[in-house]
Design goal:
2 helices; flat; three-stranded mixed β-sheet; 3 strands; single chain
């Protein structure tokens, strides 16, 4: 069974956030074999099930 992990941010500007998400994603996929999904539009995307694999 493959573990699926979602990433959700508050959506504000934050230096280094893209790099942190990329590093997490590379480790989750490459090292741990997880599936990664991202939610669009923060909490609204989570509530309305709007995500991208």
């Amino acid at each position: 069974m493959t573990m699926r992990v979602g990433i959700l941010t508050a959506g504000g500007d934050s230096p280094g956030l893209n790099a942190a998400i990329r590093g997490f994603g590379k480790a989750a996929i490459g090292t741990h074999g997880m599936e990664l999904i991202g939610f669009r539009d923060g909490m609204r995307g989570l509530a309305e099930n709007r995500f991208t694999e």
